[in-house]
Amino acid sequence: MYKVKLGEWCVMCWDKGGDGGVETSSVPLPLAEDVHELRKQIRSLEEKNAVYMQQNLDLEEELRRTSSVKVQLNSHKQRV
After folding, report:
1. Given 3-state DSSP classes, what are the helix, strand and coil percentages for the chain, each rounded to the nearest 5?
2. How far apart are CA 67 and CA 80, in angstroms?
3. Phi/psi class of residue 26: alpha, beta or left (left: φ > 0; alpha: ψ in -120 to 50)?
4. pLDDT 10s per residue in the chain (80 long)?
5. Are residues 66 and 36 part of one domain?
6. Inter-residue contact 10 to 1 (CB < 8 Å)
7. How far is residue 80's CA from residue 77's CA, in Å, rounded to a whole number?
8. For residue 51, which phi and psi values (nearest 5 degrees)?
9. Opening angle at CA 40, ends 28 and 57, nearest 5
């Protein structure tokens, strides 16, 4: 697939199933201000995602620790 910029429009072309035909689709290009705003939103979402991933890792680690403690506690209960 490749893109060709024509003024305010971007034409996307790709090989149509290897038969040599080319299919095209024209979509308007976003404005520079829109692109800047979208990049800011992406950056913000990536930062939030990093925080959520770290929280998830912390919770998984805590779950592993509590599971092993639970096994030990059950073992001690049976002895008593």
Report:
1. 60, 25, 15
2. 20
3. beta
4. 445 455 545 555 555 555 555 555 566 666 778 888 889 999 999 999 999 999 999 999 999 999 888 888 888 888 87
5. yes
6. no
7. 5
8. -65, -45
9. 125
Closest CA to 6 of 20, 21, 26: 26
Q: Any idea what DSSP says for residue 18?
A: T
Cut 0.70: pTM above it: no
Say yes or no: 42 and 77 in one domain: yes
Output the pLDDT for position 44.
94
> What's the sign of the alpha-carbon dihedral 48, 49, 54, 57?
positive
Which tokens hold the place of 78?
A: 């049976």
Structure tokens given for 32: 């520079």
Structure tokens at 45: 């979402």
Backbone phi and psi for residue 35, each to the nearest 5 degrees, phi listed first: -65, -45
The verdict on 59 and 75 lying in the same domain is yes
